[in-house]
Design brief:
It is a single chain. The chain has about 1000 residues and is mainly alpha-helical. Among the domains are: about 595-690, no CATH class; about 700-965, no CATH class. The protein is about 60% helix and about 5% strand. The protein contains 49 helices and 9 strands. Helix 21 (about 355-365) packs antiparallel against helix 22, helix 23 (about 390-400) runs antiparallel to helix 24 (about 405-420) and helix 25 packs antiparallel against helix 26. The longest helix has 20 residues, at about 925-945. The chain is elongated, with a radius of gyration of 36 Å. It holds the Pfam family TPR_16. This is Tetratricopeptide repeat protein. Keywords: Repeat, TPR repeat.
């Protein structure tokens, strides 16, 4: 007190003056000094209730709630009707977040002062703070009816309505308060907040400016103005206000400085400056470790920085300080889910007394527990209170997973009609229309969106998705790059950009442009993102480009810093698999699945590891188990399940198929679907026309050359993990080269299949293919409409590049309808599973058409009762049976069979065309079919051993060899040396 003027220094025996001086120090933001001064005064005046009361308030300002409450209780013990102390008890309990006790204190106050307007207002506030908002509204509405002109009651009712989402009604009451009392400070504050929640950010900023002008020396008013400016899209201006307050010479309390630093952190976050934002919030926590606001902001920032372990550490520390805090529990569950730890999220939710219905339902959907999600959602609907926006979005997602597409679409449009100004709603509609392939509707909807919505990050990403679906890779990239410049997290942007480049084809001009812009984006981000974050983003690029050695290094480093991140561990497991660290990959994959049993990538990797370790039966049984449990979505398992019938040693499979296929139920189970799929029933999903989206532009000759040239670099989009490469390399025999280099090149060849397969090659593309007399002969037959049968394989780039350019008057015998609308309309597509396939082939041939087939699919996969084929031969010492449709038709009609296969070596392509041997006169059909099959299998073996550039690891023939080799030696190479 040495700096206090003598005239202002109270006499030691004047308790009232001492109390006033202590209050003045507190109001002057000299709270620590106020506490010291009043504490000493209490020693001189132990019975001075006024001094004790002011000390209780100063301690509360310090955040010392327990000490403050103790003094309040001492006052009330001495004077039970001490009204200021009764109010202080309620306020202090609310600040200590003991809302039940605060409500009880408010009731006691009302019992002592029945009908007192101030007590009624305080009870309404306590109800609201205790999350009993509806009850608060009813109580305050009744109080306002009894005291229509009471401003505290009217203000508290406005705040409760605001908390309940009734912002317009809240604003009306707030304006009434301000008309009656223009300087009503709580109402001035509330108006800024209400307008912000109404998303009228310009009006909120103006209200914030008015508040700060009226209270220029009050840091809380300046803070509220800054918050409004940030929401209005001016984080730089908002941060300037914060920095000016922090630079003031007058001292602020640690809690106040912490709040300001948290807001500065939010301003930096809105600019995407996560490194600086983390520094700001850490400074806030250092000044006020007990600041819940700072803890929550730090958790969110660590998530943006992709350091989920650091975020979870903060969650655990927060819950130790505030047990079962509703908001921090939510932060922890959200972090666990983003880290891929679904079982951890389940445990955290189960341990909380709060309902968190939206988190439970979202978790059920992620784990594909659709029946659980439906039960929880129906419980919410039964309450009759209406679903929150979050629950409405989850309902739409659930309906889609339940196969109720029309209901989901109707709910989605209804959601948009209720939230037409919401960016989240607009993004939901665009993404929903694209995912259901209502592309024209999506285009029309997007075209009608106002610029204010189109510039929002959620909408911008949805529009990028739409553009890529329409093959407008340039617009998609522009949207993503623009959105990423100030985004707090770049993870989604990086994944999308590298996937777009890979989908288009690494090496092509559009792909090179995307990757160059992605690299520039990451370089720009180096100053604003933590090093750990940049490392994780680089790991995502390595994953998207199949840079397995780099991925292993980066994920090893990242997992060391963030061991609780299951998503990072899943990436590491894939890198270990691709670098042949199989034992480590298995251990990591098992850990991933223990935390997320529905992780599709981990399920696929675990399935493939069975084959690496020579356990075909285990792999088949595992796949059946995952299909029947619902963990694997149908779009994934429907193609993986093709090999299961080939496992001779899988006992009881045929009985299992027969039993489940015969089940009749209105709700068809996955087991029934799988059994019927094996039997090739008419509802076989592979018979359905595949998606015609994304719409890919045709590949030019330049594109093809660029794709082939990129093989030298070996950059490729990762496919499904497969052990096929290990077998393929073993088959090369004496031609084997360095295994790592050979496998990398072969993986790129497989990738070319995925790139070229969905596209057509431009008809005017000048392809420098080597021709032959046999090729010219075949072209002439096709042009002259002379009936011809043609066969090739699924290996190499095969005949993908010939479909639109060179095949004329041709029908295709393929396992599924192609995704090319022009091929489907200009060519005849015949499915081998069609019972009339042979008849349709005959009809095409007699009509002067050629028929092309790739029969390298083992006929044993057909599980129909009574099926048999004599087209059997030997492939690398393994008996292999093919469908005998082609040789039987050739013999019956006397039509020749041509072998046609494009083989690549670097950027050069030659076309291997030869006329296969015809059936001998009077040769019996079975002998002829077997002889033809052996000729075909010999040609197939030649392609399989023709080098890395002609591999296709997605070919089922590699898995067939792996399953049929008795010792599985091809799959069980000496991996132990690498582990």
């Amino acid at each position: 007190m040495s700096d206090m003027p003598d005239a202002a220094r109270p006499e030691p025996d004047d308790p009232a003056a001492v109390a006033r001086q202590g209050a003045a120090l507190r109001q002057g933001r000299r709270v620590d000094e106020s506490v010291r001064y009043l504490s000493k005064a209490m020693l001189r005046h132990p019975g001075g209730l006024a001094i004790r009361y002011e000390l209780a308030l100063s301690l509360r300002w310090q955040g010392e709630h327990a000490q403050s409450l103790a003094l309040v209780e001492e006052i009330l013990a001495a004077e039970p009707a001490h009204k200021p102390a009764l109010y202080a008890r309620v306020d202090t309990l609310m600040q200590a977040r003991d809302f039940d006790a605060a409500l009880e204190a408010a009731r006691q106050m009302l019992a002592r002062f029945p009908g007192d307007p101030a007590a009624l207002a305080k009870k309404g506030e306590a109800l609201r703070q205790g999350r009993r908002v509806d009850e608060s509204i009813r109580h305050l509405s009744e109080a306002l009816r009894r005291h229509p002109d009471n401003l505290p009651i009217k203000h508290e009712l406005a705040v409760s309505l605001h908390w309940n989402g009734e912002h317009a009604e809240s604003l009306v009451l707030t304006e009434e308060v301000l008309v009656a009392a223009p300087s009503h400070k709580p109402a001035l504050y509330a108006r800024v907040e209400i307008l912000t929640r109404m998303k009228d950010f310009a009006a909120a900023a103006a209200a914030g400016a008015a508040l700060s002008e009226r209270h220029p020396d009050e840091w809380q008013a300046q803070l509220r103005h800054a918050v409004a400016l940030r929401h209005a899209g001016d984080p730089l201006g908002a941060r300037g206000i914060i920095e000016r307050i922090l630079a003031r010479p007058d001292a602020l309390q640690p809690q106040a400085r912490a709040r300001l630093r948290v807001e500065a952190s939010r301003c930096l976050t809105d600019r995407g400056e996560i490194r600086a934002a983390l520094e700001a919030v850490r400074a806030a926590l250092k000044e006020a470790p007990g600041s819940r606001e700072a803890v929550v902001q730090a958790i969110q920032l660590e998530r943006f920085a992709l350091d989920h372990t650091a975020a979870l550490r903060l969650c655990d520390e927060g819950l130790a300080r505030w047990p079962d805090d509703d908001g921090i529990v939510r932060q922890k569950v959200t972090t666990l889910m983003q880290a891929g730890d679904m079982t951890g999220a389940q445990a955290a939710l189960a341990a909380s007394r709060h309902p968190h219905a939206d988190l439970w339902i979202g978790l059920d959907l992620d784990l594909r527990h659709f029946d659980h999600a439906r039960g929880r959602l129906d419980e919410q609907i039964a309450k009759g209170e209406g679903l929150s926006p979050a629950l409405q979005r989850l309902e739409i997602r659930l309906l889609r997973n339940e196969g109720r597409a029309d209901d989901a679409h109707a709910r989605m449009l209804a959601y948009w009609n209720r939230n037409a100004g919401s960016p989240e709603a607009a993004a939901l509609v665009v993404n929903g229309l694209v995912s259901t392939e209502r592309i024209e509707e999506a285009e029309a909807f997007a075209a009608g969106l106002p610029d204010a919505l189109r510039d929002h990050t959620a909408v911008r990403r949805a529009l990028a998705h739409l553009a890529l679906t329409l093959s407008d890779i340039e617009t998609s990239t522009d949207l993503l790059i623009e959105d990423a410049r100030h985004a707090p997290s770049l993870l989604d942007h990086v994944r999308r950009l590298v996937a777009a480049a890979g989908r288009w084809g690494f090496g092509t001009a559009p792909s090179r442009a995307v990757m160059a812009r992605l690299e520039h984006l990451l370089a720009e981000a180096e100053h604003r993102l933590p090093d750990f974050t940049l490392g994780v983003l680089r790991a995502q690029v390595a994953m998207g480009t199949s840079a397995w050695a780099e991925l292993l290094t980066r994920t090893g480093r990242a997992c060391g810093q963030s061991p609780r991140d299951i998503q990072l561990l899943a990436l590491k497991a894939r890198a270990q698999f691709e670098t042949e660290e199989f034992a480590r990959s298995l251990a990591a994959t098992e850990t991933v699945l223990s935390h997320n049993p529905a992780d599709v990538a981990a399920l696929k990797l675990r399935h493939e590891l069975f084959f690496v370790f020579g356990d075909a039966e285990g792999g088949a049984a595992f796949l059946i188990e995952q299909i029947c449990s619902g963990a694997l979505p149908a779009e994934h398992w429907i193609w993986m399940a093709r090999y299961i019938p080939l496992v001779d040693r899988l006992t009881g499979l045929r009985e299992w198929i027969a039993r489940h296929a015969a089940l009749q139920s209105p709700d068809v189970s996955n087991a029934t679907r799988l059994a019927r799929y094996f039997l090739r029933h008419e509802d076989d999903p592979t018979r359905l026309a595949p998606s015609s989206y994304p719409r890919y532009r045709p590949l030019s000759g330049e594109d093809l050359h660029d794709l082939f040239a990129a093989a030298e670099a070996g950059q490729s989009e990762p496919g499904t993990p497969s052990a096929a490469g290990l077998i393929a390399w073993q088959l090369q025999g004496e031609a084997r080269a360095d295994r790592a280099a050979w496998l990398a090149r072969a993986q790129y060849a497989t990738y070319l299949h995925r790139v070229i397969g969905p596209r057509n090659v431009c008809r005017d593309a000048r392809l420098a293919f080597e021709r032959s007399d046999a090729f010219a002969e075949l072209e002439e037959r096709m042009r002259s409409r002379v009936p011809t049968l043609i066969v090739g394989t699924h290996l190499g780039i095969g005949n993908l590049i010939f479909r639109g350019s060179y095949f004329q008057n041709t029908a295709f015998l393929v396992s599924s309808v192609t995704r090319h609308e022009d091929l489907n309309s200009n060519y005849e597509i015949i499915l081998p599973t069609d019972r009339l396939a042979a008849a349709r082939i005959v009809k095409c041939l007699k009509g002067g058409m050629s028929v092309f087939s790739t029969p390298d699919f083992p006929a044993e996969a057909n599980t129909k009762a009574g099926f048999r084929s004599e087209a059997a031969g030997s492939l690398f010492g393994v008996r292999c049976t093919l469908l005998d449709t082609v040789p039987k038709v050739a013999q019956a009609l006397g039509v020749p069979i041509y072998w046609m296969q494009a083989l690549r070596s670097g950027t050069d392509v030659r076309v291997d065309v030869r006329r296969m041997a015809d059936a001998l006169p009077d040769e019996d059909t079975d002998s002829w079919a077997a002889r033809w099959a052996q000729d075909y299998l010999d040609l197939l073996a030649g392609v399989m051993t023709s080098g890395a550039d002609n591999q296709n690891f997605s070919s089922v023939m590699y898995r067939y060899l792996m399953l049929k080799k008795d010792d599985l030696s091809l799959a069980r190479h000496n991996y132990e040396s690498t582990t």
